[in-house]
Amino acid sequence: MITVLAATLLVAGVSAVLAAILLVAERRLVAYGTCTIDINQGARTLEVEGGGTLLASLMANRIFIPSACGGRGTCAYCKVKVLEGAGPLGPTEEPLLSKEEVAANVRISCQCKVRQNVRIEIPEHLFSVKEYRARVETISDLTHDIKLLRIRLLDPDTLEFVAGQYVQLQAPAYGDNPDPVYRAYSMASPPSDSHVIELIIRLVPGGICTTWVFEMLKEGDEVLLNGPYGDFRLSDSQREMIWIAGGSGMAPFWSIIRHMDEKGIARKCTYFFGANKKRDMFLVDEFRAIEKKHDWFTFVPALSDPAAGSDWDGERGLITEVVDRRVEAGGEKEGYLCGSPGLINAAIKIIKAKGVPENCIYYDKFE
Amino acid sequence: MIAQTAGAEGTSLGYLMLILLSATFTDNILLTRFLGMCSFLSISQQLKSAVGLGVAVVFVTTITGALNAALYKYAIVPANEHFGVPLGLQFIVFIVVIAGVVQLLEMLIERVSLSLYYALGIFLPLITVNCAILGACLFLVNLGFHRNLLEATMFSFGSGFGWMLAIVAMAGIRSKLKNQYIPLGLQGPGITLIITGIIALAFIGFSGMVQLAK
Amino acid sequence: MTLTPTAIAGRRALVAQLWDENPIFRQVLGICSALAVTNLVFNTLLMCAGLIWATALSSATFSLLRNYIPARVRMIIQVLIIAVYVIMVDIAIRAYYPDIYQMIGPYVGLIITNCIVMGRLEAFASKNRVWPSALDGLGSGLGYSFILLSVACVREYLGFGALAGYKVPDPGQLTQYLASAGAWVVNLFGHVEAPQVAGWWKAWTLMIMPPGAFFVLAVAVWIARTYALRREAAAQPKKGGAS
Hints:
A: Rossmann fold; 6-stranded parallel sheet; B: mainly alpha
């Protein structure tokens, strides 16, 4: 009996002493006091608790820097220019920055800690990024693995954006994931209805956010999102457009085409949308309706691997092959691409081969 | 042949040097006692990280070795004698101390020097469960060095330093090997083990130089 | 006997750990002790028994508690659970084999930090039920023992000419048997003296020293990996078709 007591006391004693030392040390050593963050030469100044990451400190003050990996240092979306006060470049930041970026004082804000006063520069439009509380109105199935979410904004209740931009949807902590994560999804609804946004989400096996959307999210649930972000949008020119997309890459184009339809933007445009089998194809009737309505719009859906005996009457083959067949000279055209990196790389190759100038190719890669 | 018993009365500087030499060369914690292989195999590819990890190991081994020796001598042995507490309790106590010291060290380094922190601070969590640190403490006890704290500190430092020598040597050799042909099955751990064996062979040349009786 | 999903999962886990997912081959983990104790087969047997005990039981215990442990203290609790079972092993060896304990004592304690044990707890026991976890722990312990015993047999045989302390014919004597057998056959046709070749084998001391351990393990890893790589290459589906 006394053996057990003595043993427990010994271990408990040592642990307690260590824990006490660690707590004291944490108080004294890790305390950095209050630090100021000066943004854009004094346009805004924040007072924050030192010791946190730059990204977290900014977000806590409602300045939303894009981030897709939740602060793990893998996506490199959260680059911020730090003019002074960032300390030496960290080993987790180095692999994500090019030499030019390092020379320009660009840092990965989720890996950079605020230990002293810092001066940073962020693009103007990030000031207009806000966080929104919203409610999921409807969840409908577009295909077996793609859903359409219709989300009504509550607070603030309007979101002004340009067709083609995206928001970051927050998947709360659940199951094995202790922290909430943000994932980017392009808005599929036209900007005209600023109280409601639509998102097209494709299930990624093992994906944290998409699994949550598919398995746990219900109509009526409240969600958090922030935005708008992104430079993917119609250009100012009047060039004829080639749109190429696959899977959930449909989203920005569904937004842009309805916007063009509403506002009467009559630019000549051919939309190539690729899917695997007929069950992966969606919104075909809606796009055909718009095609009938306007002579400047042509819709070319294609299946790369239709089932034998399928009644598909549209194009067949890889979308890049279809583009190859249907597009002639591309010298006076513009390319807009949206989908997986593999699709985009292949599509860039094919339209460049058709003569589309490199600075007229716009894309939004869904990593 | 120089021989002396551990913990003997009147520890001389000469004896301390003996301990240092033996822990570093003849009874090298990695090449003779096989401890710390996991991180050794993975980090030894680059010289820079090898040095960083090596220095971190030296720091942690020395500090925790001294601490654990003291704890063993003044807490565990008396508990065993008076209350019948099993000596095996050393495992838990040592691990707790190592984890605590590593965390403390991490905080200290981050505060004192950021560049140092980036150089070796990131390795610190890695070595909490590194068997070399715990092993050094256990061997310390096994060989009886806990009876004299000065000897214990010297032994711990020697162990850490010997480990660092081994990993730096390995990193140097592996960087030379980068462009050589190595059969597919041997790539990675296989060839590293063979090289380690050859280095160990070389270090055997040091044996007989120093002998520490149990 | 119908196999419940749990039973199947457990059995699969056990078999997987023996060869396909054998931790030493796949990730070359936990070899610290693999090298240290394998100069004598008997010491290896004790070590392996201890490791199997610790891994199987701590896997089971951790699996039992997995839903009640907060994330922050998970690692510490894992270490404590393993430590409890290792202390049992330590007390047992200290009591029954004190001489051997002098040689391998610290390595017994190092089972706690053995990457294999912690690895299985983290990878399997944290997500599975008690019985499959126990079997998974048993399997990885057995897989580990398989390697260690192979290495130990080679080392002790070549180094001491014995296995687990029992003298066995060393390569010199084996060659002698062969030579004598050959001579006997030739004798059927004409008289021939059996050549005396037993003496060529001297104990290969390097095998029982540290470098020998490194070399033998390197060869074992080489063979295992080549075999595994070949199997993986053969199992690759033929590339082709649009994705």
